[in-house]
């Protein structure tokens, strides 16, 4: 292949696999491009907690040999064979540190692979790095005392989002080809929206997690990529029943069907539109980018239907923090050993969760969940998918704690998570949701839209997302150290 090394570092996985099979490209060449790119630009971004380059190169060399053998025998190869992949630090790698940014976990080592890591290895993926998160993955910015500040490649003053901020930053910067993520209030979709990448929150249980917190019905592990097709590929590898997670379901390794002509496939599709999901204060630039997507969908033959939701951002915050106060907040207190050792944003999260749990019992929090789920089901009754912005704002500060909330739409809001429209779909966590790029704001930071499906119905979400991807012009990836 004739691409420059930086173009090669940004090559999508599906194209790379095609080139591997035809022997036009070696997995070693792609890994070297990705690693070389990271060596040139990561110092300004800080997306990795550690690198595994020596082990990864040995795996890439074995993959290259396997492709030569397969070309002779015409035998199939594993679905990710030779693809460079970075895992979120919280996804255990056997024999490697698993610290989650917590001082009390410093030096702790995992004794087994996380289920998604196990499946990536089985599929031939080459794990070459691990990505940064905020402490205990509890923030939508990515910085910690342990790992420092992770910055957005599109605008270094801005965060790539969180908690999978390192994953989004690494993808946008060309420092990996695929990445793992997780999502309990938007931790996959928020960074996808801010970094011009694609992030998928699968229906609860579709991708196996790790007990005991894998039993939290708001959360889920998932894939991130630079394209819808890449994200679908990694989702198919990660998904399906696994003995470690009794909530996991469905077949494993079944490809998610994407249309050959994604724009033509939009004809007649009924797309619900909600710019604000009730009363979320959405920045005018974000709204404009979302409405531009709508115009493009309508020109392609989709039927766009305005959808009204009765939610308020206060209601959403009360609902999710009542839930977090029963599970995640106590787990963080237990794991930290001493809350005062945590980052200010983590302390604030625990305090908010504890306060809401004192006001709202578990049974009452289930009723709050059910009310939002009923509203969403009613709103989506006559549409195939729903679209809305991913983030309500054009950026958050890279090193911000936002302890005093945030000013949005001319008003002060008590919690900065009101800057994202993601958490309602963790309340409705049986719904598949993809975040795909919708454009960019004046500050250079990308904007994104979420494509939300009916419970457990994944294929329409990927089909519509692929259409949006084909319709919305993409800017060149950030130049950085070129």
TrEMBL record:
**From what superkingdom does this record's organism come?**
Bacteria
Q: Which Pfam families match?
A: Amidase
Q: Which residues form the Amidase domain?
A: 29-461
Q: Which Gene3D superfamilies match?
A: Amidase signature (AS) domain (3.90.1300.10)
Family indicated by similarity = Belongs to the amidase family.
Q: What is the protein's name according to its record?
A: Amidase
Q: Which organism is it from?
A: Saccharopolyspora oryzae
